[in-house]
Automatic annotation (TrEMBL):
Residues 41-60 bind DNA. The lineage of its organism: Bacteria, Bacillati, Bacillota, Bacilli, Bacillales. Residues 18-78 form the HTH tetR-type domain. GO terms for molecular function: DNA binding. This is TetR family transcriptional regulator. InterPro entries: Homeodomain-like_sf, HTH_TetR, Tet_transcr_reg_TetR-rel_C_sf, TetR_C. The keyword Manganese does not apply. Keywords: DNA-binding, Transcription, Transcription regulation.
């Protein structure tokens, strides 16, 4: 006799099942980024992912489960893109390359959409405790990624001993998020350019001579 499946244990997915589940998450992430979480219905996701309602229910019993997966997906995507620059942040050239990467994205998007994680945060942190915790962890991870890069610069001798990677990382992330929001509101890249350039100039004041 087969051992009964524990109801709290998720069944292992086949390769096709994993692909379908991933397609649902990506479709939901794109829709929630474009039109917001509240305005994105399960039916919207089904249509975009080209699946049936029974398939949707098989992978996600409730919308809140899907929202948490979208947060995880956007975290991996956003921080993964930034980490390409931050993991090798051992020079001011690398820091400026990261700045150019961010500005270039906004220009290509016509300054629409803002930060995927920031957009989720603005909608969810006050109304969804689980989502709040996930988003907070995502921003801590992003902050830590910046901190590691700056600490690497300090250890490599790019920054003097007065530099505080913890404070600089938090300030840089705050400047990034505020700059992205104002760039979205104004449909103008100037806010993100000024925010990042000002912070980089401040970090440059700790440059070891």
């Amino acid at each position: 006799m087969n051992k009964p499946l524990n109801i709290t244990q998720k069944p292992k997915l086949t390769k096709k099942g994993q692909e379908t589940r991933s397609r649902i998450i990506v479709a939901a992430a794109e829709l929630m980024y474009e039109q917001g979480v509240a305005r994105t219905t399960i039916e919207d996701v089904q249509h975009k992912a080209n699946i049936s309602s029974s398939q949707m229910y098989h992978y996600f019993k409730e919308k809140k489960e899907l929202v948490l997966e979208v947060i995880s997906y956007q975290t991996s995507k956003v921080i993964g893109n930034h980490r390409r620059y931050l993991s090798d942040l051992d020079s001011f050239e690398a820091l400026n390359a990261w700045r150019d990467f961010i500005v270039d994205i906004q220009i290509k998007r016509n300054c629409e959409g803002g930060c995927p994680l920031g957009s989720l945060a603005s909608e969810l942190v006050e109304i969804n405790t689980e989502a709040h915790q996930e988003i907070m962890s995502s921003f801590f991870e992003w902050e830590d990624s910046i901190r590691k890069g700056l600490r690497y610069m300090l250890n490599r001798g790019e920054l003097n001993s007065n530099a505080d990677p913890d404070k600089l990382a938090l300030a840089l992330l705050a400047a990034l998020q505020g700059g992205l929001l104002l760039t979205q509101v104004r449909r103008d890249p100037e806010p993100i350019i000024i925010a990042l350039d000002t912070m980089i100039e401040h970090i440059n004041s700790f440059k070891k001579i």
